[in-house]
Amino acid sequence: MISTETRSTAAPATVHELLIDVDAWRVWSPHVASVEATTRRVEHGWVGATRAFFSPAATSMTVDDVRPDGGYTWHSNVGPWRLDYDNALVPDNGGSFLRFTARLTGPAAQPLERLVAPLSAYGQRRRMARLAALAELVERHAH
């Protein structure tokens, strides 16, 4: 499992709104070049496809659960592998604690996960830092 965590001074509700707003993804997740979806807000059962700027093809994603207090779980299938993600969010001392995890299952999943872990963890840290900063900026401009 690949796991990264960070804290934000922004309220969980602010961070959660950015997590479920598909149009905001390209702001805090800079590798996302496009998102194809029927709705622009993530909810349980949401299905879409994202394309990274470095990929010629989109990857499908399905949201398995959206937590009422913040965050969601989703998965993607690529060939014989399944990638399970958890974008967790909980209140933390007046702000938010975020933990993003990714787990790969399928043939030779453990060695593959170890191989991609450094780059994946870097991407998680980058996305989370941008998400936290954007949420804090949204709150500063709301007051």
Give a structural overview:
- By secondary structure, the protein is of the alpha+beta class.
- The protein has 3 helices and 7 strands, in the order βααββββββα.
- The protein has a 7-stranded antiparallel β-sheet, covered by helices on one side.
- Helix 1 packs across helix 3 (109-142).
- It is globular.
- The relative contact order is 0.25.
- The mean pLDDT is 93.
Helix-strand layout with pairing:
Layout: E1 2-8, H1 12-20, H2 25-28, E2 32-37, E3 47-52, E4 59-66, E5 71-78, E6 81-92, E7 95-105, H3 109-142
Antiparallel strand pairs: 1-7, 2-3, 3-4, 4-5, 5-6, 6-7
Helix pairs in contact: 1-3
Short description:
The protein is α+β, with helices and mostly antiparallel strands. The chain has helices spanning 12-20, 25-28, 109-142, and strands at residues 2-8, 32-37, 47-52, 59-66, 71-78, 81-92, 95-105.
